[in-house]
Amino acid sequence: MSKLVVIENTVVRQDAFGRYCLNDLHKAAGDLKKDSPAYWLANKQTQELIEQFLNEDGIPVSVI
Fold it and tell me: Which of 13, 24, 32, 40 is exposed most, by the fewest CB atoms within 10 A?
């Protein structure tokens, strides 16, 4: 049985593995286009994080 998560009157769905829907979280956070999940890889902070992972031989970067 999974718990129902509601943030700012927005239901946040979960899949069978317990992962939260990024689109639902984005809507609950204000739904600004510049912050949407579709633009995550283009975000400056994301690029810096990826660069740090690559330089430190840490977590391999992959897109699914």
Answer: 32
Is pTM beyond 0.85? Reply is no
φ, ψ for residue 10, nearest 5 deg: -115, 125
Which pLDDT value is given to residue 58?
A: 64
Taking the C-alpha atoms of residue 47 and residue 61, their distance in angstroms, rounded to an integer, is: 11
| Cβ atoms of residues 4 and 13 within 8 Å | no
Give domain limits for the chain.
5-55
Concatenate the DSSP letters of all residues of the chain into one string. -PPPEEETTEEE-B-TT-PBPHHHHHHHTT--GGGSGGGGGGSHHHHHHHHHHHHTT-SPP---
